[in-house]
């Protein structure tokens, strides 16, 4: 998730480094072990300038993870970039995400798939049902 390393820089330097990283093959869909994508982290940081950079220079990929759900961990039920922005009170980010197509709901099927990806016990139980 090299793009996230650039977030420690000043805004202008971060934008230049993110653009370079995108040109070299980094993407906004790179994710951590809980499936939180780079785009998700950028949204959680309320970083509008880098979000716009991702939408301009990595648009198909950025849109493909716009509604991507993190896997549940430590009591968390999983989040999308939109639900993270809502829970953190980033009102302008919420508006921006909705304007580019973020879904304001999480389907049960999507939640179950994500839950089973992380919870091996539940996955084995669902096979016996």
What does this structure look like?
The longest helix has 13 residues, at 11-23. The chain is mainly α and 129 residues long. 58% of the residues lie in helices and 0% in strands. The protein has one domain: Ankyrin repeat-containing domain (Serine Threonine Protein Phosphatase 5, Tetratricopeptide repeat, Alpha Horseshoe), CATH 1.25.40.
Provide a brief overview of the structure:
With 129 residues, this protein is mostly helical.
- Counting helices, strands and paired strands, the structural category is mainly alpha
Largest sheet: none
CATH architecture: Alpha Horseshoe
Overall 3D geometry? globular
Low-confidence stretches: none
Radius of gyration: 16 Å
The portion of residues forming beta strands comes to under 5%
Number of helices: 9
What's the CATH H-level superfamily name? Ankyrin repeat-containing domain
CATH class descriptor: Mainly Alpha
**Number of domain modules:** 1
Order of helices and strands: HHHHHHHHH
The percent of residues in helical segments reads: 55-70%
The beta-strand count equals 0
Instruction: State the CATH topology.
Output: Serine Threonine Protein Phosphatase 5, Tetratricopeptide repeat
- Span of the ends, CA to CA: 38 Å
């Amino acid at each position: 998730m090299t793009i996230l390393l650039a977030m420690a820089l000043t805004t202008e330097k971060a934008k230049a480094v993110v653009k370079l990283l995108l040109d070299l093959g980094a993407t906004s869909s790179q994710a951590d072990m809980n499936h939180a994508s780079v785009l998700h982290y950028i949204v959680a940081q309320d970083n509008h300038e880098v979000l716009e950079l991702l939408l301009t220079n990595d648009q198909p990929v950025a849109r493909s993870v716009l509604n991507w759900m993190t896997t549940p961990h430590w009591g968390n039920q999983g989040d999308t970039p939109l639900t993270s922005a809502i829970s953190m009170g980033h009102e302008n980010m919420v508006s921006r995400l909705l304007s580019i197509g973020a879904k304001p709901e999480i389907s049960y099927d999507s939640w179950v798939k994500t839950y089973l990806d992380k919870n091996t016990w539940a996955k084995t139980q669902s096979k016996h049902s």
